[in-house]
Amino acid sequence: xxxxxxxxxxxxxxxxxxxxxxxxxxxxxxxxxxxxxxxxxxxxxxxxxxxxxxxxxxxxxxxxxxxxxxxxxxxxxxxxxxxxxxxxxxxxxxxxxxxxxxxxxxxxxxxxxxxxxxxxxxxxxxxxxxxxxxxxxxxxxxxxxxxxxxxxxxxxxxxxxxxxxxxxxxxxxxxxxxxxxxxxxxxxxxxxxxxxxxxxxxxxxxxxxxxxxxxxxxxxxxxxxxxxxxxxxxxxxxxxxxxxxxxxxxxxxxxxxxxxxxxxxxxxxxxxxxxxxxxxxxxxxxxxxxxxxxxxxxxxxxxxxxxxxxxxxxxxxxxxxxxxxxxxxxxxxxxxxxxxxxxxxxxxxxxxxxxxxxxxxxxxxxxxxxxxxxxxxxxxxxxxxxxxxxxxxxxxxxxxxxxxxxxxxxxxxxxxxxxxxxxxxxxxxxxxxxxxxxxxxxxxxxxxxxxxxxxxxxxxxxxxxxxxxxxxxxxxxxxxxxxxxxxxxxxxxxxxxxxxxxxxxxxxxxxxxxxxxxxxxxxxxxxxxxxxxxxxxxxxxxxxxxxxxxxxxxxxxxxxxxxxxxxxxxxxxxxxxxxxxxxxxxxxxxxxxxxxxxxxxxxxxxxxxxxxxxxxxxxxxxxxxxxxxxxxxxxxxxxxxxxxxxxxxxxxxxxxxxxxxxxxxxxxxxxxxxxxxxxxxxxxxxxxxxxxxxxxxxxxxxxxxxxxxxxxxxxxxxxxxxxxxxxxxxxxxxxxxxxxxxxxxxxxxxxxxxxxxxxxxxxxxxxxxxxxxxxxxxxxxxxxxx
Amino acid sequence: xxxxxxxxxxxxxxxxxxxxxxxxxxxxxxxxxxxxxxxxxxxxxxxxxxxxxxxxxxxxxxxxxxxxxxxxxxxxxxxxxxxxxxxxxxxxxxxxxxxxxxxxxxxxxxxxxxxxxxxxxxxxxxxxxxxxxxxxxxxxxxxxxxxxxxxxxxxxxxxxxxxxxxxxxxxxxxxxxxxxxxxxxxxxxxxxxxxxxxxxxxxxxxxxxxxxxxxxxxxxxxxxxxxxxxxxxxxxxxxxxxxxxxxxxxxxxxxxxxxxxxxxxxxxxxxxxxxxxxxxxxxxxxxxxxxxxxxxxxxxxxxxxxxxxxxxxxxxxxxxxxxxxxxxxxxxxxxxxxxxxxxxxxxxxxxxxxxxxxxxxxxxxxxx
Lengths: 786, 368
Description:
The complex is a heterodimer.
Chain A: E1 7-11, H1 16-29, E2 33-39, E3 57-65, E4 68-76, H2 81-91, E5 95-100, H3 121-138, H4 143-151, H5 157-172, H6 179-198, E6 203-208, H7 212-218, E7 241-248, H8 251-256, H9 267-295, H10 302-319, H11 326-337, H12 360-370, H13 385-397, E8 403-408, H14 412-426, E9 432-436, E10 447-452, H15 457-465, H16 472-486, H17 491-504, H18 511-522, H19 527-543, H20 553-570, H21 581-600, H22 610-621, H23 628-640, H24 644-648, H25 655-664, H26 667-685, H27 689-700, H28 704-718, H29 723-736, H30 745-748, H31 757-776
Parallel strand pairs in A: 1-6, 2-5, 2-6
Antiparallel strand pairs in A: 3-4, 3-7, 8-10, 9-10
Chain B: H1 6-10, H2 16-19, H3 21-30, H4 43-51, H5 66-77, E1 81-86, H6 92-104, E2 110-112, H7 119-122, E3 124-126, H8 128-134, E4 141-143, H9 145-152, E5 155-159, H10 166-170, H11 172-177, E6 180-182, E7 192-194, E8 200-206, H12 217-221, E9 223-228, H13 234-251, H14 260-273, H15 295-313, H16 319-331, H17 335-348, H18 355-362
Parallel strand pairs in B: 1-8, 1-9, 2-5, 5-8
Antiparallel strand pairs in B: 3-4, 6-7
Helix pairs in contact in B: 3-4, 4-5, 4-6, 13-14, 13-15, 14-15, 15-16, 16-18
């Protein structure tokens, strides 16, 4: 049989059981050919893999040119079946080859991780359905638990091989797969046909379980070539660069792959499983978890650990495992260590990022299992492409990383250099320091001062950063995405991150990140920071041409969801702390500007519904429980939006509405509402004589005590007017009181420095009271002093 | 759910051990696995009793994650107390009833926690006529559930434990750690009641009562906590509401069940307002209502929709009925919730597409 058919082992990537199977088969079979799913363009450089690196590492393949930026990783850990095939195949003197398409191929356009569980989204759905059915009938929950239950127990390798075949056969069925996968499989099958045609020894193929059934069918149909199948070459294009390089990798990144690009989580646990077996891995898990929990001052007493251990054994017995597996240990920990009700499901029962609200204990545990092992490349390894790309870029820009550098941001050259340096900052490369420069990307400042240096650790940091991408832009982009994800819904941090993106001139983003950001923004709990972020980001979106940020999808996504969320948070009545007042108004202004900008600007459509915003503003105005500041501002927003009347279908808002609002309020609330009104509808209101007259009448109607109460807020309200408009108001007031002989400055002049208005008003009131009393007793002058 | 015998038919709500007596028998007969000491069934059979086993004709009695049920059973088997916590209406009591039945064959050793509960309702009290006549004697002692459970090696259920005053909660401490109850009034062998194998406690607590009578750390330590979530899977919850509401409507003598589109509105609204996070269907950004948005409550609302539509106008339920019923049965008189519900309609429902969603949105003026 060994010569009639190739031995195709379909594996789950990073599964220790599969790695064990591969190793056993290699030893038993001593194949002449070991064909591995991996980038074929790396075949010439396979030796580089054996220089004595510390795993995990990855082959990073990239393709970059104008309009195309593509990168894909093929990560290896020691317990990866592919790695075992490589090492053992080479040791036994077999002919070892990677047989998959290079990662710059179109087949990988949407796949950042070659060794994903499901190489396409459609398949992921199908696999989910199959696994769900299997899990239901076995009474097991979750793909990882199911996999462990079926395959990661220490079973006989022959039985394991049969079971894997059956499992992957069912998973794939007759599905032909997407175009990309068909191309990959044809290429892999061509290699198998080649090796079989040689006929000088057994052929062992290690590939993803998804491909195995297809390869077994396909290779026979292909002509037996005498030559090794040629690796396709990318289109010849001077601007197009491509290549594959070794980069150091880390377990954390292996753990973090999301969605259908994900593989097995908790890599450190599986490393233990590979090295020491399930029994020892379990003990290690308990030991390391306990240690970490104690470090973090979370409860893990000896009694707890005894209970955990017993519980895990009990679960294993109930579930028919000889030794507790990962899910048994985790479930046991959840049962015995948690002493509170949980708000979200346990992190190992779903796929993807750990949800907010997960108990700290569980977060720590998952972190322990992910491990913080980092790979390290042997010194002689060719450097990742990033270093060469960076050197080129620096030379092209005429940048030398030494000494002090002053950049003029208004010149394209200066801006270009600034982008390079900011990208290095994003990658946290030592030796790059910005001493001076604008905080906000869109501020008016036009100079930056940098302090540059090349310390020893710079090179090392660059090699590590090489894992992020092949060019500076790509790497910085990946680092930025990581940072934005890390903000975890903290809107201020998010806005900061986007600001950094603008400074570095990075405007693109992956779909997954956009989804993450949407969710993060949708979960934020406060209106004011959201509004302020909008105020920062929307101008960047509208006017950021110079920064290449205009119409950036990244910004679009954050702005849209922030708008949605801000409206949601604005509506319920809430008290506004005095310290928050300014921020609240700024936020409402940002919302208003967005609505106004949308009406005026069709070129950059956002999917924000202006009518909804108008309806929220209108409801806010009429909500008696809301803070007067907020109501005034909402009314101001409506007054300042000319399209409000046509679009909202609401009763028109005009001056009478403003007057009615002010009249309905208590004296101490007057100033707040007026602040809101003037902050948002200054142009519409401040020069209207009838409005000013009405306000004047309202103020005149206040009695002395009320006036004193209302005064600070009223003064605050007029502070929203620029000096010139304040002058206009002053002359209106003078006219109303028939005092046109006085100059405007009689009302607008600054008070003497040592007194504030409040003091003056209080003094006047006291004085008046004294005079009144003197008058009552008949001891005062007949006339009150003017 | 098969009606097993005459008793089951005539009782308003028969306990699990009567309702499923036949299934219990079948499971026990087929049970070959080792049983934990004092248990009526093995762990596997107990799991099958709760989650169903098609081969033996055992029905699934609750929608709950397998792993969670397994954890609960192992907790009970390892002799630690089990504490079920969760929102109201997540079927904690049903779960505890089923577990007690599976483990001991009895679910009626139940203590109902409350502000007025005292120690003698938990441990034992006296038959005063005998007490006066004979003095303290085992004959004069009236055992309460905990005493019976310890004496007979059975599982005792303590419902709503956090509603009970702290001193009453703490009287469980000794029983849970030393497994012994002192009866100081008696002497000799009766002065100490040592728990037989099989005795354990399943307590339930409501997360809405958090902080009412917060359990002491010492007591918490003796329990394994298990959070019972509302049904995480949309399809499952929809199916459950559909089935349960259809049963209720049939019992009320109404020939229609609530149409699927209305149930979809109902279940989606409930899930949104519960701010549940179930991955794919996650909307995000909702504020949780104070009202209880459990599946049980959703069934009640669906029932109310059907009743209202049929008895008032002899027709099927419509989105507008749903608006009325949600407003009346769920939100009740909490002004904050009313505002949130209104905001949900104005901002979230407005954005959904589909005729039924539109009709739902149009009916928002019926909200209080």
